[in-house]
Design goal:
- 63% of the residues lie in helices and 0% in strands.
- With 374 residues, the chain is mainly alpha-helical.
- It has one domain.
- Helix 9 packs antiparallel against helix 10.
- The longest helix has 27 residues.
- The N terminus is likely disordered.
Length: 374
């Protein structure tokens, strides 16, 4: 067992070391298994918590209605008007609708697992081509379980997996010199999670640094999908900026204002958690300095999160976790000691996810109303 969990054990024993095809196959199996293990304890009991966990029901509503949402919609009990669902961008619900022949709840989980598999493969390929880590297969495997918040959200109804897929694909295209494809893929990330728009800033900084002036006009491709979506919102909700109607107070002028607010409440344990969170990710971003693409991406998203006043900042950090936690700390992750520690890390991650899942769910009554929508 210790030989498998050493610096090169994953590559040597499971992937024949220099065989990327074997690596990909085993990463596919690992990605699927990581999700199935999340589901396992609930299959004999209340399996409904897996699909009722927020924000899954919101995305099913969008997938079923395509934003044609009545005022008395199935989730109206939570006080959200139809325009609220403009916050739930269309790429992920579109995938759910495409798989709806499975039934919408199953389609949502299937879409998440599929995006998780593809994102893991894309991350592996990105690590392979960028030569950012010593053992790409091992790093890609570890990335399925760290942080534990990511393990949760790449297994339930959420947009993190498709978002990261388009981020990785966009970066791959950029590294290969396919700039139009890179910027368009970044645009697709922007209609998955709106922060994908920051990839435009990332690429702007890189193009200026590399003095590739002729490529600058192509950056319009990053914003184009989101602008088209907002034009649709104008028609559907009568508000071009409907997305921001529910998100206008999430930014603060002072960095780490959430941390100071928690300190002000005297919540020492929660304050220490946020201190460690900001520190570990911040150090990780700085350690990416040797890889300009990853560093600029990490820095832009990290700085944004510093000004974000949101109680779930650990979730907001997920988009930079593969870089700030996995790539940045490669000198630790590739050691035998870390390989052994992964046994405990994986176990604790699942205990965390299994403990969280039953709590943040839609009520059974609202869920049944949602299922009744054709």
């Amino acid at each position: 067992m210790t030989s498998v969990l050493s610096t090169a054990g994953w590559d040597r024993l499971l992937a024949r070391r220099n065989d990327p095809a074997s690596c990909r196959l085993l990463l596919v199996l690992a990605a699927v298994a990581s999700c199935l293990a999340v589901y396992l304890p609930f299959l004999g009991g209340d399996a409904g918590v897996l699909v009722r966990y927020w924000d899954g029901p919101n995305y099913i509503l969008v997938a079923k209605t395509l934003y044609d949402i009545p005022a008395d919609h199935a989730l109206a009990v939570y006080g959200n008007p139809p325009a609220y669902f403009a916050c739930h961008l269309p790429l992920y619900p579109a995938a759910i609708r495409l798989l709806s022949f499975l039934g919408y709840p199953a389609a949502m989980l299937a879409a998440t697992v599929l995006f998780t598999v593809l994102a893991t493969l894309a991350f592996y390929q990105l690590l392979l081509e960028s030569k950012a880590v010593t053992h790409p297969a091992w790093s890609a495997l570890v990335s399925l379980f760290l942080p534990a918040r990511w393990l949760l959200y790449h297994s339930v109804g959420a947009t993190e997996a498709p978002f990261l897929l388009f981020v990785f694909l966009s970066m791959l295209a950029y590294l290969r010199g396919h700039y139009a494809a890179a910027f368009l893929l970044a645009g697709f990330s922007g209609i998955t999670r709106i922060t994908g728009l920051f990839l435009g800033l990332v690429y702007l900084i890189l193009l200026l640094r590399e003095k590739k002036w002729a490529k600058l006009p192509l950056l319009a491709l990053v914003a184009m999908p989101l602008l088209l979506l907002f034009a649709f919102y104008q028609q559907q909700f009568g508000d071009f900026f409907a997305y921001f109607s529910e998100n206008s107070r999430l930014l603060r002028w002072r960095p780490a204002d959430l941390y100071f607010a928690i300190l002000g409440m005297g919540d020492a344990q929660n304050a220490e958690f946020h201190f460690v969170l900001y520190a570990v990710y911040g150090i990780g971003v700085l350690l990416l300095w040797r890889i300009p693409l990853f560093f600029v991406y990490g820095a832009v998203f990290y700085v944004f999160n510093l000004f974000l006043f949101h109680e779930d900042v650990s979730r907001m950090m997920i988009p930079i976790a593969p870089f700030a936690l996995i790539v940045a700390y490669d000198s630790i992750i590739r050691t035998r000691a870390f390989g052994l520690a992964m046994i405990g890390i994986v176990a604790l991650s699942y205990i965390y996810v299994w403990g969280i899942l039953p709590h943040n769910t839609a009520t059974e009554e609202s869920w049944q109303k949602l299922l009744e929508i054709p």
